[in-house]
From TrEMBL:
SUPFAM superfamilies: FAD/NAD(P)-binding domain. This is FAD-dependent oxidoreductase. It comes from the Bacteria. The chain crosses the membrane at residues 7-24. Keywords: Membrane, Oxidoreductase, Transmembrane, Transmembrane helix. Pfam families: DAO. One of its GO terms (biological process) is mitochondrial respiratory chain complex I assembly. One of its GO terms (cellular component) is cytoplasm. GO terms for molecular function: oxidoreductase activity.
Length: 401
């Protein structure tokens, strides 16, 4: 381990490891990379506790294209991340997303979103009530006016597999990882210069990347900067179904999609079980170490909504549950990626608000381009940069789950 690195990445989960990979894999970069991760087990990382899905059904073209690239990476992951004989398999399940709309406002949003998605080349179709009933006969569609379904490029996959694939490949290409915690960041004028570690060491840094997930604001404050990101708790439930509807669909080889009910409750197959969650009734900032599930959400919100949506979901039983943290962007619930406009060698990769896994590949690539070329050369992420935070100018995205 050296005393100074060209790039120091704070946080080694999916975002930090994606940045490390794209930097180390680019032949135009010959600098040194250090990734600092305080928990090598990643047990409480948002990456490990997420529902690990990807969709192209967003309302903003940038988010659509970010996920299209993420889907491309997932398809080619084994080849991209091969290290010697290890070819990581993400076990991608191409189930698609199914958004259901029951009100005129929801219908309008689905139609507007669909126009954007199709203009970007996304493989998304709209179903009327009869088409929806034919495709998914287990559903009660009496109140549904329109549905939006992703035929390809959407599904779910191995969350830690994505992270470890990036991590292992980056290490094989020369990136260094250490187990430690950043407790301070030194700054001289408009330049960050080093990080202080809990172990007592000080490491010089040419560029610092904030990839610290829900703790992004803590990292930024060490450099005298503010970012509107805070931890928000989300609980996921795995349940068994006495009369499973999986296999009953008349499309996609019988496989069910990830369904988003008009109530906001979502549900998707998880092996022989189902995974489900919902937007919380109240959504306060969470304590950094509070991972206690909100058990009542299943009985009070999820089960009633699912039983109403399908008779097959009347007899279900929870077999597991856990809580994780969103790195929640309180400004607009969307990623913040890019340099600080004044402290130019401090780069944000934060605020994904539940979309970090699917947006990790494009983020890693984009941040690496900023570091190497001082510009985006693939997908222009300027619109989701930090400048909008300073200007209090939210990035509009209507399809937030």
């Amino acid at each position: 381990m050296k005393d100074t690195y060209d790039v120091v990445i704070v946080g080694g989960a999916v975002i930090g490891s994606a940045v490390a990979y794209y930097l180390s894999a680019n032949p135009d970069f010959d600098g040194s990379i250090l990734v600092i991760e305080k928990d090598p087990t990643y047990a409480k990382a948002s990456t490990s506790l997420s529902s690990s899905s990807i969709r192209t059904q967003f309302s903003n073209p940038i988010n659509v294209r970010i996920s299209q690239y993420g889907s491309e990476v997932i398809r080619n992951f084994a080849d991209m991340m091969q290290v010697e004989n290890d070819r990581p398999d993400l076990c991608f399940h191409p189930g698609g997303y199914l958004f259901l709309a029951s009100t005129p406002e929801q219908v309008q949003i689905l139609r507007e979103n669909h126009a954007v998605q199709v203009s970007c080349g996304a493989d998304v179709v709209l179903f009327n009530r009869d088409e929806l009933a034919d495709a998914f006969p287990h559903l009660n569609v009496a109140d549904i006016e329109l549905a939006s379904y992703g035929r390809s490029g959407e599904g779910w996959f191995n969350n830690t597999g994505l992270m470890y694939g990036f991590r292992n490949k980056a290490r094989s290409l020369g990136a260094e990882y250490i187990t430690d915690e950043v407790v301070g960041i030194a700054r001289e004028g408009n330049k960050v210069t080093s990080v202080a570690l809990k172990s007592g060491r000080t490491i010089g840094a040419g560029t610092i990347v904030n990839g610290s997930g829900p703790r992004a604001a803590l990292t930024a404050r060490m450099a005298g900067l503010d970012i509107p990101v805070e931890p928000r708790k989300r609980t996921l439930f795995v349940f068994d179904c006495a009369d499973t509807p999986e296999g009953t669909a008349n499309i996609n080889s019988g496989r069910l999609p990830l369904m988003i009910d008009p109530s906001g409750v979502f549900c998707r197959p998880e092996g022989r079980f189902f995974l489900s969650g919902c937007p919380p009734v109240e959504d306060p900032i969470s304590d950094w170490d509070d991972f206690e599930p909100r058990y009542e959400e299943f009985e009070n919100i999820i089960w009633p909504a699912l039983a109403e949506r399908s008779p097959r979901f009347e007899a279900i039983k929870v077999v597991n549950q856990w809580a994780g943290h969103y790195d929640f962007n309180t400004l607009d619930h969307n990623l913040i990626v890019g340099r600080h406009p004044e402290v130019r060698n401090f780069i944000f990769a934060n605020g994904f608000s539940g979309h970090g896994l699917q947006q990790g590949p494009a983020t890693g690539r984009g941040v690496s381009e900023l570091i190497i070329y001082d510009e985006y050369r693939s997908l222009d992420l300027t619109e989701v940069g930090f400048e909008r935070v300073i200007q209090n100018r939210p990035f509009l995205e209507k399809a937030v789950i």
